[in-house]
Amino acid sequence: MHIVVCIKQVPDSAQIRIHPVTNTIMRQGVPAIINPFDLFSLEEALRIKDKVGARVTVLTMGPPMAETSLRKALSLGADDAVLLTDRKFAGSDTLATSYALTSAIKKLSEEETVDLVFCGKQTVDGDTAQVGPGIATRLGFQQLTYITKIESIDQGAKEIVVHRRSEGGVQVLKTALPCMITMLEGTNTIRFGKMDDMFRAARYGLKTWNKDTTGAEETKVGLKGSPTVVSKVFVPKPRAQKATMVEAESPTAEAQAAAAVDAILGAQPKLADELLARAAAGL
């Protein structure tokens, strides 16, 4: 079994700052980490490896500095790593990113058929949750999103049974391999790397691929292949209005509620008129 885990190197969201003039993200001095949601998918792939002896390949698209995230994944137990980097990938939106990653996965399939693709539920910098499903659509794989548990994998029958969280509860789904899975956060505990894997990660010769290696079309990657346009990024202005203390005639709940309602209606006279009109109409 061959499993591909797609990860992304992102700025640590806890330390992101916005430039006060340009309103752009200030990445200088902000540490880069593996997207936290991707780690849960990586851990699940490694658990499958522990059970059935699968081969786990980690794939990322980004600048050369993304190598550190790949080596981190190798230190946790992944077998191989591929860095997809090319200046022509710069500015890719989710459509172009899913195309570039799909091209790399197809290239990996030439060496060994890919049975499972894992992606994080979403990234902390983009929050779109579109790349994983985009990859599945381009590959023609079944897509299993918001998965909380992998119940079983039958390699002989090429079937997988998973638990999926939905608004109404938990769905138990069975589908055929190959498929794409996105794991929910908190579904497992990410392991610590073993010393042997850490040494291997430090010595590992990363595979570095570009557009030409994967055969990706130039018009479908980077800005040329990205129909999404971000018109503006800004920080919401803080409200200048201060909080008002509402004093009630007595400490009872009824008096405090009445005082709060009077204060709200006093500040919003149109709301008071609307409520009176609705009451008169019997609504």
TrEMBL record:
Q: Which UniProt keywords apply?
A: Electron transport, Transport
* Pfam families cross-referenced by the UniProt entry: ETF
Electron transfer flavoprotein alpha/beta-subunit N-terminal domain boundaries: 22-218
Q: Does the keyword Transport apply?
A: yes
Superkingdom of this entry's organism? Bacteria
Question: What is known about its subunit structure?
Answer: FixA and FixB form a heterodimer.
Please give the function described in this protein's UniProt entry: May play a role in a redox process involved in nitrogen fixation.
Q: Which family does it belong to?
A: Belongs to the ETF beta-subunit/FixA family.
Could you tell me what this protein is called? Answer: Protein FixA
Q: What is the lineage of its organism?
A: Bacteria, Pseudomonadati, Pseudomonadota, Alphaproteobacteria, Rhodospirillales
